[in-house]
């Protein structure tokens, strides 16, 4: 099961060694350890741009992992892969599944907003003003939620909300 890392660097090696030590020390079941190994191998493959391999590892981890919090991060990472491949509908599905399990995942909220914002720009370029407005409003709603959870993050989104008059000051 352990993945051979092609582009090992010091940080990756250190993380792997520390994770292995922690897993040996912590009182976790065999299944929990197996799920973590799949997740870790998925992250490694994803960081190297090996998305198909990463998805295989993440799907294996999902079959085993029972903890909702841990599952939310697996689903989030699957969403990241689909988003980076331009499969925005699939990415949105996985981000929403992640949020169903962990509503305090600002990065998923941000990524949903980014997709809607992109769709809004695309619609505007095609002169679909109503669709564009709708997508921008959805982006604003998700960015407001992300900023509420992580007020010091997403500065560009905060600026966009301010410059477009979409900021909701009741959340602050």
Automatic annotation (TrEMBL):
<keyword id="KW-0472">Membrane</keyword>
<keyword id="KW-0793">Thylakoid</keyword>
<protein>
    <recommendedName>
        <fullName>Photosystem I assembly protein Ycf3</fullName>
    </recommendedName>
</protein>
<comment type="similarity">
    <text>Belongs to the Ycf3 family.</text>
</comment>
<dbReference type="GO" id="GO:0042651">
    <property type="term" value="C:thylakoid membrane"/>
</dbReference>
<dbReference type="GO" id="GO:0015979">
    <property type="term" value="P:photosynthesis"/>
</dbReference>
<dbReference type="InterPro" id="IPR051685">
    <property type="entry name" value="Ycf3/AcsC/BcsC/TPR_MFPF"/>
</dbReference>
<dbReference type="InterPro" id="IPR019734">
    <property type="entry name" value="TPR_rpt"/>
</dbReference>
<keyword id="KW-0602">Photosynthesis</keyword>
<dbReference type="InterPro" id="IPR011990">
    <property type="entry name" value="TPR-like_helical_dom_sf"/>
</dbReference>
<feature type="repeat" description="TPR 1">
    <location>
        <begin position="35"/>
        <end position="68"/>
    </location>
</feature>
<feature type="repeat" description="TPR">
    <location>
        <begin position="35"/>
        <end position="68"/>
    </location>
</feature>
<dbReference type="Pfam" id="PF00515">
    <property type="entry name" value="TPR_1"/>
</dbReference>
<dbReference type="GO" id="GO:0009536">
    <property type="term" value="C:plastid"/>
</dbReference>
<feature type="repeat" description="TPR">
    <location>
        <begin position="72"/>
        <end position="105"/>
    </location>
</feature>
<feature type="repeat" description="TPR 3">
    <location>
        <begin position="120"/>
        <end position="153"/>
    </location>
</feature>
<keyword id="KW-0934">Plastid</keyword>
<dbReference type="InterPro" id="IPR022818">
    <property type="entry name" value="PSI_Ycf3_assembly"/>
</dbReference>
<keyword id="KW-0802">TPR repeat</keyword>
<keyword id="KW-0677">Repeat</keyword>
<feature type="repeat" description="TPR 2">
    <location>
        <begin position="72"/>
        <end position="105"/>
    </location>
</feature>
<comment type="function">
    <text>Seems to be required for the assembly of the photosystem I complex.</text>
</comment>
